[in-house]
Amino acid sequence: MSLADIRTAIITDLSAQGLGDAVTAHPGRLTVDELKTFSIKGRAAVMVGCLGAPRVDDAANLPALILSFAVYVIAMDRPGAPRDVTAMTLASAVALRVARNLWGRDDLDDPTDIRADNLYSGTIEKRAVALWAVTFRQAWTPEGLSIAALDDLLSVVTDFDLDPATDGEPVLTDTIELEGGS
Q1: What is the distance between the alpha carbons of residues 7 and 25, in angstroms, rounded to a whole number?
Q2: How far from each other are the two terminal CA atoms of the chain, in whole angstroms?
Q3: CA-CA-CA-CA dihedral for 32, 123, 114, 83, to nearest 10
Q4: Which of the 8 DSSP states describes residue 108?
Q5: Which of 20, 49, 62, 69 is 20 to 30 A removed from 98 (C-alpha atoms)?
């Protein structure tokens, strides 16, 4: 499993709950400049971004990456539904959905540090949208994480052997396998 798989699981769950007219992936942090080119189909859009892994928790038996996610809620005015009301209502529903959600996976812990923040600013107001971000952290203990999926990496194997003929002094033996790569 990968970070992309976790993000997809979050998108699938939020979409199945009907949270937003379109629930899509975002590559990371949403910027105000992106709002210039962003178009919303319907009343509100939801975008899920992985912000990174700000720390590793190695206190448990297996190390875990502490992941940081953001779910951006962007809303437009619709008759009878001002954008700020739509965005805050949807952000609240997303935050409640995030609580205790493992996204159908057994390699995640319960989300922590769940926040729903109104990102209102004059610049965002000029774009005629409301923007909220639901952020949370979630511990992930990857099992079978393989860099082999990244086919443009080179692998290097180094063996250290003790040669009895040198009185226990280490002798370095290199075995370098250059398979694949770009």
Answers
A1: 7
A2: 24
A3: -110
A4: B
A5: 62
Helix (H) / strand (E) containing 130: strand 130-140
Beta bridge partners of 176: none
Cα–Cα dist 103/136, whole Å: 13
* Stretch among 14-18, 47-51, 95-99, 146-150 having the lowest mean pLDDT: 146-150
* Contact between residue 66 and residue 55 where contact means Cβ atoms under 8 Å apart: yes
State the alpha helices, DSSP H only, in 29-121.
83-98
Q: Name the amino acid, one letter, at 4.
A: A
- The listed range with the strongest mean pLDDT (25-39, 95-109, 153-167) is 95-109
Looking at the chain, how many residues does it have? 182
- Give me the pLDDT at residue 60, please: 61
Strands (E), 2-129: 22-26, 44-57, 64-75, 112-118
Beta carbons of 71 and 47 less than 8 angstroms apart: yes
How far apart are the C-alpha atoms of 42 and 26, rounded to whole Å? Answer: 18
Q: How many beta carbons lie within 10 A of that of residue 54, not counting itself?
A: 10
How remote is the C-alpha of 168 from its chain's centroid?
48
pLDDT > 70 fraction of the chain, expressed in percent and rounded: 77
Tell me the pTM.
0.77
